[in-house]
Amino acid sequence: MKKIIVVGATGKLGRVVVEGLQKDYEVIRAGRSGPDLKIDAFDFESVSDILASVGPFDGLVSCIGGTPFKTFEELTMDDFAAGLSTKCFSQLNLAKAAIPFLSENGSITLTSGIIGDEPIIAGSCAAAANGALNMCVSTLAAEYAGKLRINVVSPSIIENSVDHYGMLFDGFEPTSNESIIHAYRRTISAPITGRVMSLTRAL
């Protein structure tokens, strides 16, 4: 049974992913509050030490990261820096820390979002972070070809977050839990790398 670490396991997306994996995989739930591993995605040394304690594993799935949703006029450069750090840099830090401990041809799955492809009002920070993550993963796939696989899942607004975001995603078809589960399972099992798995588009 493959051993998969899911970071952000207790968040809205992470809970869906964990539920969809745990029947067929040994799932280790990680995040700032655990419950299996406590991980600070911004601290490379601590992440590396924690992943080393797990020993070899077959996959890392990151379900973390958020950005501020403000108009460009309202956004400050500190907002942009925070959004890029939380959504993009933290996940790249997890990937970098995981690489030495992955089994042969192991997988890394990061999470961006539909705003990397489709515009919304007040979404410029999310677009910058998601777009950077998508492009970086395609480059890393080339760099680590034959050694490991790295992909991105890019959902639309997920079903259990519709009420939270209100009209920001008006006209976007929510990504179903079933679609989310299939996408993350595919990145773990299928012989693909450098892919951005866009699950749905605006209507």
Distance between the termini: 39 Å
Strand segment count: 7
**Biggest pleated sheet:** 7 strands, parallel
Helical stretch tally: 6
Instruction: Give the CA-based shape.
Output: globular
How big a fraction of the residues is strand? 15-25%
**Strand order within the widest sheet?**
3-2-1-4-5-6-7
Radius of gyration: 16 Å
Q: Provide the helix percentage.
A: 25-40%
Q: Overall pLDDT, averaged?
A: 94
The stretches of 5 or more residues where confidence is low (pLDDT under 50) are: none
Oligomer: single chain
Along the chain, the helix and strand elements come as EHEEHEHEHEHHE
Class by helix and strand content?
alpha/beta
Brief summary:
The protein has helices spanning 12-21, 44-54, 77-98, 124-143, 162-165, 177-189, and strands at residues 3-7, 26-31, 37-38, 57-62, 102-111, 149-154, 196-198. Strands 3-2-1-4-5-6-7 form a seven-stranded parallel sheet, with helices on both faces. It is α/β, with parallel strands linked by helices and 203 residues long.
Describe this structure in words.
Helix content is 39%, strand content 19%. A 7-stranded parallel sheet has the order 3-2-1-4-5-6-7, sandwiched between helices. The radius of gyration is 16 Å and the shape is globular. Helix 1 crosses helix 6 (177-189) and helix 3 (77-98) packs parallel to helix 4. With 203 residues, the protein is an alpha/beta fold. The longest helix is centred in the middle third of the chain and has 22 residues, at 77-98. The N and C termini lie far apart (39 Å). The model has no long low-confidence stretch (mean pLDDT 94). It contains 6 helices and 7 strands, in the order βαββαβαβαβααβ.
